[in-house]
Amino acid sequence: MLTAENVKTYIESSLPCEHVQVEGDDGHHFHALIVSTHFQGKSMIQQHQLVYKSLGDRMKQEIHALSMKTLTPEQWAEQTQ
Predict the structure, then answer these.
(1) Torsion of the alpha carbons at 56, 61, 65 and 67, rounded to the nearest 10
(2) Coil, strand, or helix at residue 34?
(3) 66 and 54 in contact (C-beta within 8 Å)?
(4) pTM greater than 0.85
(5) pLDDT, tens digit, for every residue of 13-36?
(6) DSSP code of 72?
(7) What is the DSSP letter of 57?
(8) Backbone angles phi, psi at 24, to 5 degrees
(9) Cβ proximity of 70 and 59 under 8 Å
């Protein structure tokens, strides 16, 4: 069964990130918060496509649902103040 930690590792191994937090305990549905400089200058759709690309075929086979919030480091800093 796929775990939140597995999903976190998959994202981090393919997309340089400053912060990744993944939650989900049923093995198929996950929620992620991802902070990456690679999101700068990209639309939300483009940011999400980068994450989907990092997960590859797992999005078609193992992961049934992934809701995510993607932020640049600057946006993350604003939210954590």
Answers:
(1) -10
(2) strand
(3) no
(4) yes
(5) 999 999 999 999 899 999 999 999
(6) -
(7) T
(8) 145, 135
(9) no
